[in-house]
Amino acid sequence: MNAFVLSEPVQTGASADEARVAALHVEGLRVDLDNGSDVIDHIDFSLEPGEILGLVGESGSGKTTLATALLAHARRGARISGGRVRVAGTDFLALDGEGLRRARGGLIGYVAQDPALALNPAIRIGKLLLETLRAHEPTLGVDAWEQRLQQTLVDVGLPGDREFLRRFAHQLSGGQQQRVMLALAFILRPKLIVLDEPTTALDVGTRAHILQTVRRLCKEQGVAAVYVSHDLGVIKDLVDRVMVMYAGRIVEVASRERLFARPGHPYTLGLLAAIPEVGRQRVLRAIAGHAPAPGQRPRGCAFAARCERRTAACEGAEPSLQALDGTQQVACLHPQLSVLPEAESAAPRLFVEGRTPLLELRELNLTYDRQVLFDLDVQVYRGECLAVVGESGSGKTSLARTLAGLGDNATGSLNFDGQPLSLLARQRPAATRHRIQYIFQNPYRALNPRQTVAQCLQAPLEHFFGLKGAACRARIDAALTRVALPLETANKYPHHLSGGERQRVAIARALVCEPEVLICDEVTSALDVSVQAAILALLRELQEEGMTLVFVTHDLGVVRAIADRIVVVKDGRIIEAGASSEVLDRPQTAYVKGLVEQAMFLR
Question: Is the pLDDT of residue 20 over 80?
Fold first, then answer.
């Protein structure tokens, strides 16, 4: 069993008395699929009140399975098959029925990744919070309910006025929705809160505020927290300790300071090497290969096939966690013992003045139920990567969609390769439509779940070029090879693929159209940092071959890694533009300075 013993506050192997006072004590936790294959196993750890633990790993590492198992829940097709989870002394896995329902919320709060899906769209915010209080604490009384409600709203930074409490979830911004989720979790004063990727889709400013709110509330109220993330950079200034998972096992546990200064496991090294930095251009290195699926774990170390340090001994018994010092344990036969060298710097992105724009947009105005873009002028030069940056609601995606011809009610002029081009794709010449392609943020929603990858790629080939049969399949195979996917991927459905593989398929679908411009809308925001590094490397290669990129993002680290130029959009207007290094190193407006400072805080 991979139990670990660390100095306070995280420890395992605790005595019965210690387990009773711990906010969370997990011992021997295991979750199996219906076929008997384990998803997670050998999970042992404890948390003290007020302590924040970062739980990190790639998609498929088991971190979300562990997080939901803490609430005595397993997804369909899986079951909690062993172990104990004690929350403030209560054996959570022994509860059922009404007892379990009251414990979920009363003892453990949960904050989901997507608040828009988690919040009931038919219930007003005030009623939702009050109903939660009434269900779990019916004896408090009306005055106490109202006092708790108002105090919680203050705690999470939301207004408590009547107008706000009468709103529905869809009438709130993404940041407000996530703060409502925090309010629902903290209003019952739980002993533990589990946060599952709660800031993935948020812009950098909102993300920083949410993380600061979480840390403050946990420390002030003595609430322990498990913060699930695929991005080590996000949790760098939030957590007290970090637990790294790979293929359903704990592979490293360390204090925050120790892990970022001297990571021990090769997998952790790989995750850190893939994180883009806001402050400088650096070479990003993706981890080669893929993690094994449940039931396919190899003998010995599961990471060995992807590890540059592997030896024959790594294929023997599965390594268990071993102490490197009092604040760090690593499940590796060949851990990193020395301080890491400085990461390799990359050549800065250069912008050449005086070229003729490939795309030129003039006096763009766009209106939905209200005006969202105001007199925008944008130039995109052949072979460059232009980053469109801004917070949620700034208008950056509306701008990108208009370039692709997807925005209705737009006025202005657009020139493409020296010729006028309609702002509506359906009014563009058939010979031109394939030259500008749009890659959406969520590839799972963008790909037809009832079609194989081959069918998804075949449709544009038939539509634009009339290709069928062997010629069509040859183009499909070439596109899959170009995005580093095996040819057998063509016969799979989207749900058979990982998030990174689906995003590569979305890029391949755009490439078969032989475009000159790729518009990428937040295409790396939900990806693991290693997968993100691989996608950015692919886009860089395409750009070096002559592709022109428009990259919409709120992640300034990604901007530093890939963009030649930046335009910053705020409230539907461009407030700053210039070469990437100029804007990030010497911002001219207070707004952009704030974005850079917040991004530096998160990295």
Answer: no
At which of 505, 530, 546 does a domain end?
A: 505
Same domain (yes/no): 386, 422: yes
Of 89, 94, 161, nearest in space to 125 by CA: 161
State how far the Cα of 189 lies from the Cα of 49, in Å rounded to an integer: 12
What residue numbers bound the domain in which 547 lies?
357-435+516-602
- Within this chain, do residues 382 and 491 fall inside the same structural domain, yes or no? no
Task: Calculate the alpha carbon distances from 217 to 49, 152, 191, 221, 600 in Å.
Answer: 12, 10, 12, 6, 22
Q: Is residue 296 part of a domain?
A: no
* Total domains present in the chain: 2
Cα torsion through 2, 218, 88, 8, rounded to 10:
50
Q: Is 407 contained in some domain?
A: yes
Question: How many residues does this entry show for the chain?
Answer: 603
- Per-residue confidence at 352, pLDDT binned at 50, 70, 90? low
CB 457 within 8 A of CB 471: no
164-190 pLDDT, tens digit per residue, is 999 999 888 778 888 999 999 999 999
User: For the CA atoms of the chain, what is the radius of gyration?
Assistant: 25
CATH label of the domain that carries residue 404: 3.40.50.300
Whether 565 contacts 351, CB under 8 Å: yes
pLDDT given at position 1: 35
> Measured over all CA atoms, what is the biggest interatomic distance in the chain, rounded to whole angstroms?
77
Same domain, 520 and 494: no
- Tell me the whole-structure pTM to 2 decimals: 0.83
Residue given tokens 């990129």 in the structure block: 549
Q: Which amino acid is at 457?
A: L
The torsion angle over the Cα atoms of residues 557, 558, 564 and 565, rounded to 10 degrees, is -70
Is residue 182 within 8 A of residue 156, CB to CB? The reply is yes
